[in-house]
Amino acid sequence: MTDWHSHLIIGPIVLPMIIASAMLMANERRRILKASLSLAAMAAILIMALILLHESANGAVGGGDTARVYRLGSWAAPYGVVLVADRLSTMMVALTSVLGGCALIFALARWDRAGPRFHALFLLLIMGVNGALLTGDLFNLFVFFEVMLAASYGLALHGSGEARVRAGLIYIAVNLTASLLFLIGVSLIYGVTGTLNMADLATRVPAIAASDLGLFHIGAAVLGTAFLVKCAMWPVGFWLTSTYSAASAPAAAVFAILSKVGVYVIIRLSLLLFGADAGASAGFGLTWLMFGGLATIAFGTFGLIASRDLSRAAGFGVMISSGTVLAILGVGDPAALSGALFYLIGSTLACAALFLLAEILQRGREADVGEARAVFDDEYRDPFDDEERNEPGLVIPAAVAALGGAFLICTLMVAGMPPLAGFVGKLSMISALVGVGGAAAWTLVAVLSVSSLGALIGLTRLGVGAIWTRDEDAPAFVVGAAELTAVAALLGACVFLAIFAGAALIYTDHTAAWLAEPQGYIHAVLGGGGR
């Protein structure tokens, strides 16, 4: 390998950190410079993510299903810090790059000027997400998790408005509590096993003495609760819809990946530490995940049907997506998990696009938080004032037709209806569940079906009200070029996923099989090659 190629795995973490740090030293009026640096950074991260994804898909590192391991300072695990790029982590990094790039493009229409230090916070958020996805130990998972959350606090409060500040403070309080649970869980696990490296933990779990097993399970349960809060699993997900609906549109769109970071960690730790080889700990917590996932799907579906606001409906869509993956993970079938991973990609992209569309369709209403009075002295004016609203080149013709088509695609994706990727993912899950059989599997099939119907009813009602039955005195739709580009890119990714669904399902099939056999991951980290 060439030197640059051997360091590729750390690029999605280091690059946004360096550029964000440099931005903090530049004056806030250097908007064009900061926007250009942010776009260049996201483009570079996307390229690196796609290269890593291609290697994972084709087994370029040693052949077959394997993982690339990066040892910082050349210290071997479990004593050194390692980054691990396998099928699951590279898929999530690529998803983060696409989602983050589109949200950033949307923000360039106006929202990056609605408050200070937007670009630095945005890149630090991307850095934290990528670090959490690529790290191989629980200590650095906590570090990156806190970087991600600290940046998200700033983005949740970005812009003016009392409603945004009120929801943001609740969000901060909830996540600080989750961080405390994280520390308690990690401390208990370290006290029992003496290690925090995930692969090393997997080798030590089967040998835990019976007298210590209960304490280890308590630590794992506390740690899992911290991430289930981030997943917004019922009943600890009460904070999500109010926070996401109050946040600025690009912030809410990129927040759609944050809940999936929690889902990623639950998948990783459940299958790595509590797989078939875990002895007395095998299958720990899976039943709770299944029932919690079912409750989350039901709660999200009822909430979406009852929503009168598109942004809140999109938030409930995020909850449904997370609950679906958690419930499937609880079933314990690799084929069903493959469909859930495919569904996770499409639903995350669709929910992010729905947040962006909601801002466009609801712009100008009296309840818009962006028009509320400022709370802090350094808040900027409304980025959508009349002075700039009709700036040449910003208005897109046939906006109603374009927005209607975009909303239709979002609705079909979130509801899991044909012919788009959401349907492919749900059909794959249902097919696998039918093969599994049993009361739990059939219950999940019924809940998934009812959830699709509920999402279709709720979003259709909101779409008709927002586009086709608007008040006569409502302002005309004004869509910025950057806004339309961002929404089109997200929905284009959804369509692309549907066209190449066969190849994507092959990838998720191999990913689920790789996760079900954790010895490959363990060998790559503790005994395989790597820098």
TrEMBL record:
BP-aspect Gene Ontology terms: ATP synthesis coupled electron transport
Alphabetized UniProt keyword annotations: Cell membrane, Membrane, Transmembrane, Transmembrane helix
Membrane-spanning intervals of the chain: 6-25, 32-53, 88-109, 116-133, 139-157, 169-193, 213-240, 252-274, 286-306, 313-331, 337-358, 394-417, 429-456, 477-507
This protein's GO CC annotations: plasma membrane
Domain (NADH:quinone oxidoreductase/Mrp antiporter transmembrane): residue spans on this chain: 136-449
Record's subcellular location: Cell membrane; Membrane
GO MF, one annotated term: NADH dehydrogenase (ubiquinone) activity
Pfam families: Proton_antipo_M (PF00361)
Topology term for the membrane: Multi-pass membrane protein
Record InterPro entries: CPA3_Na-H_Antiporter_D (IPR050586), NADH_UbQ_OxRdtase (IPR003918), ND/Mrp_TM (IPR001750)
Family per record: Belongs to the CPA3 antiporters (TC 2.A.63) subunit D family.
PANTHER family to which the protein is assigned, alphabetical: NA(+)_H(+) ANTIPORTER SUBUNIT D1, NADH DEHYDROGENASE
Protein name: Monovalent cation/H+ antiporter subunit D
Organism this protein belongs to: Brevundimonas intermedia
